[in-house]
Specification:
This protein is α/β, with parallel strands linked by helices. The chain is built from 5 helices and 5 strands, in the order ββααβαβαβα. The strands form 2 sheets. Strands 3-4-5 form a 3-stranded parallel beta sheet, with helices on both faces. A two-stranded antiparallel ribbon has the order 1-2. The longest helix is centred in the middle third of the chain and has 21 residues, at 55-75. It starts with 8 loop residues before the first strand and ends in a 14-residue tail after the last helix.
Length: 167
């Protein structure tokens, strides 16, 4: 996710055996529009992934996109110091543990892991994420989607993102 005062860009990367961009969308400037878009994307996450969880490839693709975007913004002297957010929906299982262990998160990126699935791997989640939001409870049941969405969306309200828009 790229968050800015005037435009918010959302890149959706789906990962399984490989990682690929699914969409590149612009958020509404209104908070309700952002929430609705994120909710739609969550609702459309594929249930038919190939059961190979290559978490490292998905995160690497996101980190590379952030580094490329940061370089462009520094060149333009725009958005220096802005926060870049990656939200990853995962159980924390990774197919390639050694690649996952060597993955370097850019210092400008904040990673929020949303833990979901029948079996959660919290050690990996805490290794990769600055914050972990549990969609799946310890007993295996799921929290209400609206409650989880609200917790995710709280991360999009960094200053100066909202203040100049009056949000």
């Amino acid at each position: 996710f790229f968050v800015s005062p005037y435009k918010t860009r959302l890149d959706l990367i789906e990962f399984g055996r490989d990682a690929e961009y699914v969409s590149d969308l612009k958020f509404s400037q209104k908070r309700s529009g952002r929430q609705q878009l994120v909710q739609q994307l969550i609702g459309h996450m594929s249930d038919e992934l190939d059961n190979i969880t290559n978490l490292e490839k998905g995160l690497k693709k996101a980190f590379d996109a952030h580094e490329e975007y940061d370089t462009l913004q520094i060149t333009k002297n725009d958005r220096t110091g802005a926060k870049n957010i990656v939200v990853v929906f995962t159980d924390g299982k990774t197919h390639n543990q050694s690649a996952m262990s060597s993955l370097q998160k850019p210092s400008s990126v904040i990673v929020i892991a949303v833990a979901l699935g029948l079996k959660i791997f919290p050690d990996v989640l805490h290794q990769i994420a600055d914050d972990v939001i549990y969609w799946t409870k310890e007993d295996g049941s799921e929290r209400q989607e609206s409650e989880v969405l609200q917790e995710i969306m709280a991360n999009f309200d960094f200053k100066p993102c909202g203040k100049e828009l009056g949000l």
